[in-house]
Structure to design on (201 residues):
């Protein structure tokens, strides 16, 4: 008698399993959105994601480790990018810009102080390198942590592009402020490693 009950239970379980499997077949599968075939999520996992940089993260490049002391979040119309203030703590200070236009571009910037160069001409020369006017405009920014700037404001900029990923950038923060000049070098993604200090994006 017991074996009859066991058979009935087994048949009932089998029937429920078959019914559940057929029901799941009828459930709509969530549609997956379009994916960029050139997106490199593996590199972001292994070397950190520059688009997630923020204060307290660590950046390793050219054998030096620099801390992100603060960030500027900039916008002009619908276009957005970031600039991060890096410091080794031993006197080496740089800025790192990160933008997607549409491909990811990471540029390391160093301030130039001893120059009479001004923005405006279609071409400029600095240290024997020729640069052509690339883009200019006015952006709004929000400052995070330590940047030396007000919490919010505006910045005029005029960027020049040179050979082999070299760049010049003029920036003027606020109304009537003097132009500041920096030279930049576009980094290959494998030249930089980022250590995020939290999982928050």
């Amino acid at each position: 008698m017991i074996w009859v009950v066991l058979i009935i239970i087994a048949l009932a379980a089998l029937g429920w399993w078959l019914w559940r499997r057929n029901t799941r077949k009828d459930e709509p599968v969530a549609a997956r959105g379009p994916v960029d075939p050139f997106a490199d999520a593996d590199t972001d996992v292994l070397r950190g994601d520059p688009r997630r940089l923020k204060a307290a993260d660590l950046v390793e490049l050219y054998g030096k480790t620099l801390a992100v002391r603060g960030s500027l979040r900039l916008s002009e119309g619908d276009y957005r990018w970031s600039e991060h203030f890096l410091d080794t703590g031993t006197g080496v200070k740089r800025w790192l810009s990160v933008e997607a236009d549409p491909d990811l571009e990471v540029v390391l910037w160093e301030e130039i102080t001893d120059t009479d160069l001004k923005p405006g001409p279609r071409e400029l020369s600095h240290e024997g390198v020729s640069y052509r006017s690339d883009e200019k405009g006015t952006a709004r920014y929000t400052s995070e942590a330590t940047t030396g700037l007000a919490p919010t404001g505006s910045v005029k900029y005029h960027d020049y592009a040179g050979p082999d990923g070299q760049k010049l950038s003029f920036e003027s923060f606020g109304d009537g402020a003097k132009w500041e000049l920096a030279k930049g070098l576009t980094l290959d993604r494998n030249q930089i490693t980022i250590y995020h200090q939290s999982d928050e994006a």
Remarks:
- The first strand starts at residue 58 and ends at 61.
- The chain has one domain: 54-195.
- The two ends are 63 Å apart (CA to CA).
- The chain has a mean pLDDT of 86.
